[in-house]
Amino acid sequence: MEIEGGGFLSSNNQQGIMIARSLRRLTCKQLNNAVTDESNPNIFLVDTTSINTVVLIGFVKSVNKTNAGVIFTLTDTTGNISCAFFTNNSYEEIQIPLVVEGGLIKVIGKLRTFNEKKSVTVTHVLECEGNDFIYHLTEAFYEYLFNTNVITPPKKKTNTNIESDVLSVFRNNQGDEGLEIDTVVGMLSGNYRETEIRDVINNLQLECQIYNVDDTKYKTTT
């Protein structure tokens, strides 16, 4: 095992494909090195783990605004990747001004490939600070170590504070159109299992403490 460029460990251990997490913090290098599953070319693998929704933090460069949205390059300490953010509603349109050359932003989206070139189709853009950038890189490295069995994660909390924590995440981060379930899961994944978080969200909806805005977004009633 040795350290490769970009600060990531390399392991030759053969491992089975792990089930995808809803939200995965990654770096540009990890996305550019992602491979497709032999049985399904639409599934990308990072560290033998299939990925669904990805989170990146980096600096913006090469901004090209279009009538449909904005195309830009995101760069971090590990490399660059092309991103496309096409807006479909007013909530997404107000995120466009965050994409300015030299700005530090967080993007959430899906990995795509065209002509063998990787890119990210962005669904959300969030403003962030330098501390967020450092935390993101640290967490991406930690998740790499976990997924390659270099370390064993600490036992998840099973206390009764999960309902309060879920409500706090909604109240502190929801916009006019609510908050994505995957975002809530990602923010609390360090403390609780995904199934626990989703069960609490379902219970909160039944108790009328949150309501469904669309298929994937919820908002608190108070």
Automatic annotation (TrEMBL):
InterPro entries: NA-bd_OB-fold, NA-bd_OB_tRNA, RFA2-like, WH-like_DNA-bd_sf. Pfam families: tRNA_anti-codon (PF01336). The keyword Kinase does not apply. One of its GO terms (cellular component) is nucleus. Residues 54-125 form the OB domain. Keywords: DNA-binding, Nucleus. GO terms for molecular function: DNA binding. It comes from the Eukaryota. It is found in: Nucleus. This is RFA2B. It comes from Hepatospora eriocheir. The lineage of its organism: Eukaryota, Fungi, Fungi incertae sedis, Microsporidia, Hepatosporidae.
